[in-house]
Amino acid sequence: MISDKLFALVLVVLILSGCGVNKEAEVKNIAPKPSTSTVVSPEITEGTSKVTVEDTGKTNVQDSNTLDQFIKKIQPSNEQLQRIFKEDLDLDGKPEYVLAFGLEKGGIDNIFVVREDAGYHIIGKLEDPVMVAHLNTDMKIMKLDQTEQKFIVVYSTSEVDEAEGFSIFTVDHNRISNLNYNYPEATGQGSRKLEDINKDGVFEDVSYYRFQDTQKHTIITYQKFDSTGPEKTKVLYENKNKKFVFPTDPKDIIQNYLEDHYLRNRFFIHLPEMAEFTALSASPKNNFESIIDFSAMDYTGLDLNVKEIAYEANQRVFLVKSSSEEEESNQGLVFTLEKQSGMWKIMSIEMNDKL
After folding, report:
1. Would the pTM of this model clear 0.90, i.e. be above it?
2. Shortest CA distance to 81 belongs to which of 56, 113, 45?
C-alpha cells in the first residue's frame, strides 16, 4: 500500500519536471523580431556621435552604424556634426546624405555631400560663394517650384545680424553647383530671402532695401529663384501711415524729392509722388549727383544742408548742399518753392556752382 503511494508520488514529480523543461525550451526558442529602422529626428544630440537622419524615409540600423563610423572618419577637427539629411537630390533613385559640420552649435562651416556605393564616399563639398565675412546658420533641403527637384539651401547672416542672405546648390550625380546666391555684400546690411512672394508655388529671390528717408521707403526687388525671368519691383511705405504723406515743411519737400530722385535712378522705378512735389513742366536735366553726395542713403539716410537764402510772401529760395561740403562754399542746388492752394511746390531747380 505504502509502496504504491510512493511510486505514484515519484511519477508525479517526474511528470512535473518534464513539463518545466519543455516550457523553458519553448521560451528560449521565441526570438525577438529584429529592428529595421531608426527614429527620424530633426536634431543632432549634442556631445555624442549618435546619427539621426532628417528625411521622409527610414534608415536601417546597420547602415546607420556604418554611416556613424564614416562620419567620424571625415569629421573636420574640432567641429561637431550639426545637421544631416538623407534625400535623393539628383532624382536617380539613390539617396544622398548631406552632412553639415560646425565649430559651434547652430553654426555651419563645412558641408559634404555623401553617397553610398559599395560603402560611403564623398562626392563633393559645398563651396561657399559669399565673399565677405558672414556666418552660415542653417541648412535645408527644399523644393522651390512645382517639380520634384530638390535643392540644398544654406542661410547666412552677419555677426551682428544686420545682413541675411542665402545660397542655393544643386546636385547632379557627382557634380555640385551653386545655382544662385544673394547676400548684401556691398553694404553689409539688408535682407535677401527665398520666398514664394506671388503664392504660385514657385519661390523668388527677394531683396529688401530699407531706407531711413522721409517716407521710410522699403524697395523690394524679386526674380525667380534661379535668376531667370524678369525682375520686378514693389515699393512699400514703412512710415506711420503706411502710405505716402505729403510733407508740410518746404525743407522736407526738398529732402523727399532728392531722396526719391536717388531711389528712382537706382532701382529704375516710377515714383508718382515726385510729380506732386513740383510745378515743373518737365523734369530737370541737371546732374544732381555732381553736387549732392547720395552715398549715405544706404546707411543712415541722405544728409543735407538746406539753407534759406531768399523769402517773399508765397515764395522761398533755398541753397541745398551735402552736409559734408564746406560751410563757406556756395556750390549747391538752388530750389525755388511757391505756395499754391496751401501747399508748397518746387517751381525751379538750378545749379549754383559759384565758389
Report:
1. no
2. 45
